[in-house]
Design a protein that fits this description.
Aspartate Aminotransferase, domain 2; 14 helices; Molybdopterin biosynthesis moea protein, domain 2; 3 domains; alpha/beta; Aspartate Aminotransferase, domain 1; seven-stranded mixed β-sheet; 37% helix; binds pyridoxal-5'-phosphate; four-stranded antiparallel β-sheet
Amino acid sequence: MSTPVNDFIDSYISSGASRFHMPGHKGACKLGIEQRDITEISGADYLYDAQGIIGQSEQQMSRAFGSAKTLFSTEGSSQCIKTMLGIMRLTSEKQRLSVLAPRNVHKAFIDACILLDMDIVWLYPETPGESICCCDITPKQIKQALDGNKDIDCCYVTSPDYIGNIADIKSISQICKAEGVPLLVDNAHGAYLGSLNENIHPIALGADICCDSAHKTLPCLTGGALVHISKQAPKEFLDRAKTVMSMFGSTSPSYLILQSLDICSDMLASGEFRQKLSQTVCALDKCKQRLAALGWKLCGDEQLKLSVRASECGYSGDELANGLRKLGIEPEYSDSEYVVLMAGIYNTRNDFDRLVSAFEKIPVKQALRREIVPLCQTKSVMSVRQAAFSRYRTVSVDDALGKICAMTVTACQPSVPVAVSGEVISQQIIKILKRYSIFEINVVY
Ligand SMILES: Cc1ncc(COP(=O)(O)O)c(C=O)c1O
């Protein structure tokens, strides 16, 4: 168990060296963290050619996740998602690749497809869902899609989703393996899944590559993220990974974030995170039981999320979130249907008590009557890249019917696309755009 990056920085600080290198703050404390914020000085290694302290910390992390290789990112899963698809692109003989994906992807996936000129084959749930965040796909649907389209080069699944639903990665990975198609998982919300009593991290369940936002569920600074490549993945994935990641990142990665990832790596390797996580999961589970007894309708599968179907309890998600805010609870996310709260290992007993007492103060009411606007099959007439880079004009969504979406439109949070570049804007898309308070859209000239 070790923290090589932090140890190096400790010894650099105590050496008292005069800093004639970047960053310009020279370690002078305004924020209080500047001393630890360094650049690639001698001995500090290079993130994109990590053979020293960063490499050692990555290897420790890789062992904790049981991967063949784990790469640190200081620019979130947004960078890691581009890296995962970039690996597909750089290891294929084909000029254009096709990726199969349930529709509830994060914006970074679309950006990657635009940049790498990849085609997307969308999957929609058999029973239309009520939120763009959710896309309940069965392994059978994945099989049918792969059987029906031999041009698909990889399968990409977002799990857990923002609401806390977890896909059946084990079955999906078996299908992908049988079809000879790599499985990529956006596990941004699930870095902790390998530290539960039952290891349900995508790498353990058969994914070939996956990304985790360490900052979402591990005690890591914002921006810290991981790409894991599994032991069963082709060796060329390992060889290309760093080069691809560097294409999507700054040449000045944050050493503060690297130190934070280094600490997480140590906490995972030593078992400290696992032990604290089990206490947190237990505390949150007790809260869930109490809330359910009060009549609150909970949803989702995740053990670190508390997701409330607010509309079934008489509130819009945003109204309930405001009510909680007034009682000192700041949720992660809300929309017209849901409120999502995320717990972490440093939430205190007092936090959990406050959470329960806030819900006790808000009365559960009769379910709201609301119109469900599921996202139905969309029609694409241009590639995402072609449409995203087309000349465009901005129109009111009311005037957008039948026009072609230029730059993909996502609701600000959760950054899931409503209209994707190249799609014909339908009445349904217009309704969903309005639901997310989006009133203008860029359309191809
Ligand atoms: C499902 C999903 N994937 C990817 C991302 C991007 O992660 P990051 O913020 O680490 O770049 C997010 C961000 O919220 C997300 O919800």
